[in-house]
Specification:
Elements (H helix, E strand, L loop, with lengths): L2 H13 L5 E4 L20 H6 L4 E6 L3 H11 L1 E6 L4 E3 L4 H15 L7 H14 L8 H13 L1 E3 L11 H10 L6 H12 L3 H9 L6 E3 L15 E3 L9 H18 L5 E6 L1 H6 L3 H10 L1 E5 L5 E6 L2 H4 L5 E6 L1 H6 L1 H15 L9 H13 L3 H4 L3 E3 L9 H6 L7 H11 L1 E3 L5 E3 L1 H10 L2 E6 L11 H17 L5 E5 L6 E4 H13 L2 H8 L3 H21 L4 H13 L1 H10 L1 H16 L7 H13 L1
Helix pairs in contact: 4-5, 10-12, 12-15, 19-21, 20-21, 21-24, 23-24, 24-27, 25-26, 25-27, 26-27, 27-28
The protein binds benzoic acid (BEZ) and magnesium ion.
Length: 606
């Protein structure tokens, strides 16, 4: 912690004499300060900063992983809060006009002479909203449909303010399993109840806050009522049989999307999605390698076992598993299981053309002159006590020059290999060799609230590894997102995911108007969206240039919008304009002279 940070907590404790701290999540910095992952000692910063002052932490109900960390490292009592209400993205402006034309076209007879003119119009309209047609209007129709139906957050949640009738109704519409009337009435009732402010007061009075699992409301209505103390999971039983089956299916969906069997996949694993799915993502990694969890006689997780090649029906795929620091802290048994799976695959007596884990491990053994135990290490994360890859910090503070610096930061932070004993060692050379083999990178998206362009963590983790892969290979490898936000799984290319979020969120009045209603914070979130978009360009190059053009039109070149945003939050507005100029300077798009001039002028003006 900086001097100021440390002094602030000390002042609150000793001079101000606070009886309790109220942290408003997520997430703070206190619980991420250096130290052990649990059982803080006098050398651990979270404990030194907060001492014995009670820590009441209002926290998003959909983030149990970081909430657990706050409990373990900063003595927090969690008071869960709802995430923003959800709504369907709908269509607007040119997208709406295009849909009308397509509707008309679908209803026309093949012989209708007007059809040719309409088709020309559709091509023009599609082009004006930057939708590629590739000749198929059906495909265009599906893209539009996907955008229209996408769920997006509707502004922000305000503690103590009841949901509007409309938000309340829309919630009930999108939560599955409410066909049963009684069930629906119960959830409806709970959604109306203000349970969060009373819980904060209760905690301040030193009363008991009842426990609750974390989750996303649209998949787990049992998180209601909020205002409860989130807990995580039973670590010995994860992954569950259900998660293993889901993970296997999702891995098959990924392999089906990529078409060609990859030899190696870089898969990013977070704590939150695993906790909410009882180990769905780790099961995907296990499925790639053709492995299953091994449970002991008491039903407790004790390692991994291989599925036979006959049962697997394809080669074992090598998996480079990169863990968030949060995963590393919360799931030590699962780390051992993943490392065990990689080791068992590497040492299986199988032909190398059917076992890419073994093939690669044998190569690495020879190249580095290391034992197989080392060559088979595939679980990488931060050093103990450290979180994140710092790629988001570099992008956020514009503190980088060449894209390869982002790969440097990523590798410096994430080159700690975790073995079967759960211990880590720094292995940068090994990481290099494993990166070289990667054919594609992948991460799951788990919450409607947070898209890949909403928070900077996705490009910090998936973007970071993709950049590192690109540098190690000397060429791009595809990047995919597994969208599990509404259950099941849909795999998209990262470029498609970014385009979808840009259309359904960033450029969509139904997304930004409710945010603007929240004033300062709303503009900050819009600004973050632009920064995160740039983060994806920098790390993966998977942002189509039109995205920047349309962001400029919507938020900077529109005089009235620019003024509104500047009034509400001048710093964030300036950042938006600066980012768009920065994106040009870094050749992520090429605006015409006139647009560029207008952007530069607005920077001066702001
Ligand atoms: C995690 O749960 O692992 C995680 C959550 C937020 C940001 C990064 C990682
Ligand atoms: Mg952060």
């Amino acid at each position: 912690p900086t001097h100021a940070f440390s002094t602030f907590y000390r002042y609150l404790r000793e001079n101000f004499g606070a009886n309790a701290f109220l942290h408003f999540g997520m997430h703070g910095a206190l619980e991420f300060m250096p130290g052990k992952k649990a059982g803080m000692a006098e050398t651990c910063w979270p404990d030194r900063l907060i001492g014995d002052t009670p820590n009441i932490y209002l926290y998003a109900a959909n983030n149990p992983s970081e909430a657990c960390l706050a409990k373990r490292r900063a003595n927090a009592i969690i008071v869960s809060h709802l995430t923003p209400p959800l709504t369907s993205a709908g269509l607007y402006k040119g997208l709406l006009e295009l849909k009308e034309s397509l509707n008309k076209w679908r209803g026309m007879k093949g012989s209708d002479p007007a059809k040719i003119d309409l088709e020309k119009l559709i091509v023009d309209q599609a082009e004006s909203v930057d939708l590629k047609t590739s000749g198929s209007f059906e495909e265009l129709w599906l893209k539009l449909y996907e955008t229209e139906q996408a769920l997006i957050p509707d502004g922000l949640h305000v503690v103590g303010r009841p949901l509007s009738d409309q938000a309340h109704k829309e919630y009930l519409d999108v939560i599955p399993g409410l066909e049963n009337k009684e069930n629906k009435a119960r959830v409806s009732d709970l959604l109306r109840r203000d349970s969060e402010l009373p819980a904060i007061l209760s905690a301040l009075e030193g009363r008991y806050i009842a426990p609750v699992p974390g989750g996303d409301l649209i998949r787990s209505p049992e998180i209601l009522p909020t205002g409860r103390n989130m807990h995580a999971f039973d670590p010995f039983r994860m992954p569950t049989a259900f998660a293993i089956e889901e993970g296997r299916r999702q891995t098959n969906t990924l392999l089906g999307t990529h078409k060609k069997i990859p030899h190696s996949v870089a898969i990013v694993l977070w704590g939150s999605d695993n906790i909410k799915t009882d180990g769905g993502s780790i099961s995907q990694a296990m499925a790639l390698m053709g492995a299953k969890p091994l449970f002991d006689d008491h039903g407790r997780l004790s390692g991994a076992k291989l599925i036979s090649l006959e049962e697997l029906g394809r080669p074992r795929i090598d998996a480079l598993m990169t863990l968030s620091g949060i995963f590393r802290d919360l799931l030590p048994l699962q780390i051992r299981m993943l490392a065990d799976a990689a080791f068992k695959a590497a040492t299986a007596n199988e032909p190398v053309n059917m076992n890419f884990v073994r093939a690669h491990s044998l190569d690495i053994m020879e190249e580095l002159g290391v034992p197989i135990e080392t060559a088979a290490l595939r679980v990488f994360s931060n050093a103990e006590g450290a979180y994140g890859s710092n790629v988001n910090q570099l992008i956020g503070s514009v503190a980088w020059d060449q894209e390869d610096e982002l790969a440097d930061a990523y590798e410096a932070r994430k080159s700690f290999a975790y073995g079967r004993n759960g211990k880590c060692e720094k292995h940068p050379k090994l990481l290099q060799l494993v990166l070289e083999k990667v054919d594609l990178s992948y991460q799951n998206l788990e919450s409607v609230e947070l898209g890949v362009t909403t928070v900077d963590h996705y490009f910090d983790t998936l973007g970071g590894i993709s950049r590192a892969v690109k540098r190690a290979k000397g060429k791009d490898a595809p990047v995919y997102i597994g969208d599990q936000t509404r259950g099941g799984s849909k795999v998209r290319t990262l470029a498609d995911q970014i385009a979808l979020e840009t259309r359904s969120r960033s450029l969509n009045p139904r997304w930004f108007e409710p945010l603007l209603d929240h004033g300062y914070e709303g503009v900050r979130q819009i600004g973050a969206q632009v920064t995160n978009t740039l983060g994806w360009s920098a790390t993966t190059g998977q942002v189509e240039p039109w995205v920047y053009g349309k962001l400029s039109e919507t938020f900077v070149l529109d005089e009235e919008m620019r003024r509104r945003m500047a009034d509400l939050n001048p710093a964030a507005s300036l950042r938006v304009a600066n980012r768009l100029v920065e994106a040009h300077d870094r050749s992520y798009w090429s605006p015409d002279e006139h647009t560029l001039e207008a952007l530069r002028e607005s920077v001066m003006e702001l």
